Amino acid sequence: MGKDPPPKKIPQRFKAEKLDKVLFLMRMANDVQLHCVIVLDRFLDVARMQRAVQLSLEAEPILACRFVKGKWRQYWEQRDDLDWRECVRLVRANNIDLEIGNYLAAPISHLEDPLLQVRIFRSTTDTLCVKMNHMVADAGGVKDYVCLLAEIYRGLAANQDFRPEVNGNGTRSPRQLWRHFSFPDRLRILRRGFRDWKSELVPRGNWCYPFVKAPAAGRMFVIRRLVGPDRFPAIRQYAKLHGVTINDIMAAAVFRALRAVLQPAPGVPMRLGTTVDLRRHLPVNKAGGICNLSGLFKLNAGTELGMSLADTIQLVHGRMRERKADCLGLGDCRFFMFGGRLPYPWAVWVFKLLNRFNRFLSGPEVSPGLTNMGEISREQVDFGEAKTEDAFLAPPLVFPPFFVIGLSGFAGSITMSAGFCESAVAKTAVAGLFDTVEKELAELF
Prior knowledge:
Mean pLDDT: 90
Number of helices: 11
Number of strands: 14
Shape: globular
Structural class: alpha+beta
Order of helices and strands: EHEHEEEHEEHHHEHHEEHHEEEEH
CATH class of the largest domain: Alpha Beta
């Protein structure tokens, strides 16, 4: 038998990838936090969970870092002051929904606080909340982490000396994506980028959520199980019969609900900023490490949505089918053509210049966003003897003039969520918007 290979040496610094840097620049638009909430049917073993979190930080060393903006370069640096015990806490909750909502909305320091926080909210059962800095991971990265945490938790149940493999060399770079595309493919991606840009700007103008002009205050989330297991089969059956996707259906319902609330003027194009998990373009749909690997584009429904939800579903399906046939989500890479090599001050200048140029061409209004963060599988949230009854992802809390709705699925249910400042938009208004989405979907039942 040969000797065991030497342990991998963990670097003290990791490269800040392009999306990490872009999200750092966007920290004034949102709180740059992603959340995963997992409702369990019993109590967790707190000591075991604390050990699992500790081991997860060793397994994915990027999560034990801090972001350093530097004068000329940005990078991730291993922290020598990180106390993993601060990353995980037990919270005894009298009003579980209120406690979780307050926690999701609580601000953090982007540069000083840990990139990862885990809270166990305990009432009659436990609810596990994972909060992760968006600069280090997107929704796909959060799901990858939760899957790792669950795997370690189960492993410790069988063997208290269990240790996961350390991902010391796993790539976080978008190059893991681009290396699968030939030169002609990359030209197609560049062409897709300019088509996306045209779709964002032409025709000029946007609908925009009507915010009250006031200092941002009163952070909160509205969370709604929009579709439960009792109604999900009807939506799935409709999708199958009409050759559309569940995402087409949900986006169409959101379009119609927003039109009812925003009442755009005739001729104003109705666009939704939306995200795509680019792991779909990888051979096994999995990145080399916890990272950001998402694309962004504007779904332009035009100026007319049709008379019924069915009409809008077909409209959205047609627009999405065209995108899926042509480098879905990859056109967003045009914004990263300069950020990789420019010194930080220059990159900031280019970022702001592009943003002002886009605003000049499209108008000052900012269209709302819809981010479908995908389905959470039971395997990803398998905590052994503690069975998962519900799980969902929640998007970052955004500040005016931005407004973003998040969707996620689990076990035949769909949850909708939005984080916002009540000083700018009333909680009742957001709840009313969600009511309207539900009423639109009721046409399918």
